[in-house]
Known about the structure:
By secondary structure, the chain is mostly helical. The chain has helices spanning 8-14, 16-35, 40-49, 54-64, 69-79, 83-94, 103-106, 112-123, 130-154, 163-169, 172-182, 190-206, 209-225. Helix 2 packs across helix 3, helix 6 packs parallel to helix 8 and helix 12 (190-206) packs antiparallel against helix 13 (209-225). The mean pLDDT is 80.
Amino acid sequence: MQDTNxxxxxxxxxxxxxxxxxxxxxxxxxxxxxxxxxxxxxxFGLSLIIYAGAAQFLALALITSGAPLLVAAFTLVAMNxxxxxxxxxxxxxxxxxxxxxxxxAWAFGLTDEVFGAALGQLARGRRFxxxxxxxxxxxxxxxxxxxxxLGAYAGAGALAGWPVLEAALGFMLPALFLALLLSILSRxxxxxxxVAAVATVVVSLAWSGTAGILAGMVAGAVAGVLxxxxxxxx
Length: 234
């Protein structure tokens, strides 16, 4: 008997909050990309291949500023290094019995928000399943591609008449991710949060704010994988 709570359609439904957050950000990226001289196809290609939210805006800045290819590639890899730890952290939470047969495919969709949503579903007692992960990831990916395509088609200046909206879009992804994490926050996760916060502050003071954010993300992910936060009671 199929568990409808872990099916592909249920994954799509669970991804709706991410869709609402991704689409306007992707639209803004499409507008920004064409404004910097990229063609609509090139803008869409960045979302199709990179699919990394804020990193795409950074990639756009690096490309248009004439940064060397190796510098741009290293910067983007470093910024997204945390994603390498999302899969192990998720599978640790799912348990040893969780299927990994198609992880090579659905892991592509493990963005910050998809990872947070998947953890939230597990915290609420939903059994891990790969069809559910495919639905969750596909909903987010499709909305990002659709938003980029529409923004690129609208062209540069599409948001020029809405400066407040344009500025607010930059806060939507962090706000969405924070909301997902707060929904599953418990006392057991406090040590991991402390590790991430300390790493962020120390590296920011010693180096830079960008490096501090990266250090905090990596330190927090590593702490989670190592089980520093322990397990929730019950």
